[in-house]
C-alpha cells in the first residue's frame, strides 16, 4: 500500500549526486524539472525502472535511499499506469522544491553487469 514505506529511492546520475552533495539540494534532471517534481521509486520499482529507462546509459548511476519522513506531505503517490503508483516529491503545496540532502540516508553506486544492475540496497 502506498505510503507505508520507510524509504523511497532515487536513481541518480553521478553528476546529480555530486551536485546534491555540494549544494545540499537538487532539482533533479530535465525530466524532473519539466514535470515539476522529483521522480522516486519504491524499492520494488527500482529494478524495473532501471531496466526500462537506463539499460543503455553510459552514465554512472547511483541509487539514493531517501527517508520518507524527511519529505513530509510533499511526497505524493501517483498512478503512472493502471497498476503502479510511484512516489513523486513535489514539496509543500506542490510547490516543486529541490530534494534535500538531509533526506538521503544512503547512496550507492550502481554496477551494470550482464544487463543487471546491482548494489547492496537492491539485495
TrEMBL record:
SUPFAM superfamilies assigned: ADP-ribosylation (SSF56399)
Coiled-coil intervals, chain numbering: none
Entry-linked Pfam families: DUF952
Highest taxon in the source lineage: Eukaryota
Record-given protein name: DUF952 domain-containing protein
Source organism: Erythroxylum novogranatense
Amino acid at each position: 500500500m502506498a505510503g507505508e514505506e520507510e524509504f523511497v529511492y532515487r536513481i541518480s546520475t553521478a553528476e546529480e549526486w555530486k551536485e546534491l552533495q555540494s549544494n545540499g539540494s537538487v532539482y533533479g534532471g530535465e525530466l524532473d524539472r519539466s514535470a515539476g517534481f522529483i521522480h522516486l521509486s519504491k524499492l520494488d520499482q527500482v529494478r524495473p525502472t532501471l531496466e526500462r529507462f537506463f539499460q543503455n546509459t553510459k552514465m554512472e548511476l547511483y541509487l539514493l535511499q531517501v527517508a520518507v519522513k524527511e519529505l513530509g506531505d510533499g511526497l505524493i503517490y501517483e498512478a503512472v499506469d493502471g497498476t503502479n503508483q510511484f512516489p513523486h516529491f513535489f514539496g509543500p503545496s506542490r510547490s516543486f522544491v529541490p530534494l534535500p540532502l538531509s533526506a538521503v540516508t544512503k547512496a550507492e553506486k550502481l554496477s551494470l553487469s550482464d544487463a543487471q544492475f546491482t548494489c547492496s540496497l537492491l539485495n
